[in-house]
Amino acid sequence: MQYSYKLIRSPRKSISVSISNQNEITVRCPWSLSKADIIKFLDEKSEWIEKVVQNNAVRLARNDDVIEHRSIYFNGKKLPLIMSDKTELAADAVYIKKIDDIEGLYKKECSDAFLKQVNEISEMMLIKPASIGIKKYKGRWGCCDSKNNLYFNFMIFMLPPDVRRYVIIHELCHVLCHNHSQAFWKLVSDYEPDYRELKKKLSYYDFLTQVY
To answer: How sure is the predictor about 51, in pLDDT bands with cuts at 50, 70 and 90?
Structure first.
């Protein structure tokens, strides 16, 4: 089966394929690998590729109203996104003057309660980050830097509460373990036994980090 893909060659020794939330396929391989070997590799991965592409297509189709800025998520629920002369996060809709207002509106309305929740979970886990901040990211929900400063994507307020809590726990665990090793996931499971299911739920919303 033929696929349209972006090819990245480097000094690496192996070949891999990844698929973005927007169904962009990227192949990474050694400099010397032939096109025939790349096609063979993709053919061997075809069943997995088709499954991911189809799942992404279904999810994106269900959220075309969000992608087209007619609706917006808040706490895991869709609300109408209305262009207006006011900027307001209401019970029935989100009103903005322009798309760029969303970040400021969500931060203004949600930051205090969110930071309080992060601090409460931090105390429960006995893990103390250097600082906690909220900013805009493309393609990620949070970050723990080398100095243990935590930063969360403002779009985290769009997630369901249980998924948002998982992201908080995930990033707090990075304060103690700056990787995704077996030890890291064991630490996550100590505080969130259902992390596998929540991680799967989070993937449904990953496309949001490319929308705003």
So the answer is: very high
pTM across the whole model: 0.83
Q: How far is CA 148 from CA 100, 143, 154, in A?
A: 29, 9, 19
Containing structural domain, residue 202: 102-210
Two structure tokens written together for 118? 């992060």
Please state at what angle helix 161-176 crosses helix 195-204, rounded to 10 degrees: 120
Contacts 24+ apart (CB under 8 A), 194-199: 195/166, 195/169, 195/170, 198/162, 198/163, 198/166, 199/166
- Separation in Å, CA 59 to CA 112, 132, 141, 153: 31, 31, 18, 21
> Domain boundary residue among 13, 29, 52?
52
Of 31, 52, 73, the residue that ends a domain is 52
- How many domains does the chain fold into? 2
Q: Which amino acid is at 170?
A: H
147-164 pLDDT tens trace = 999 999 999 999 999 999
Closest CA to 150 of 123, 175, 124, 114: 175
97, part of any domain: no
25-30 and 131-135 beta bridge pairing:
unpaired
Residue 71 makes CB contacts below 8 A (sequence gap 6+) with 65, 78, 79, 80, 81
> In this structure, what DSSP letter does residue 125 have?
H
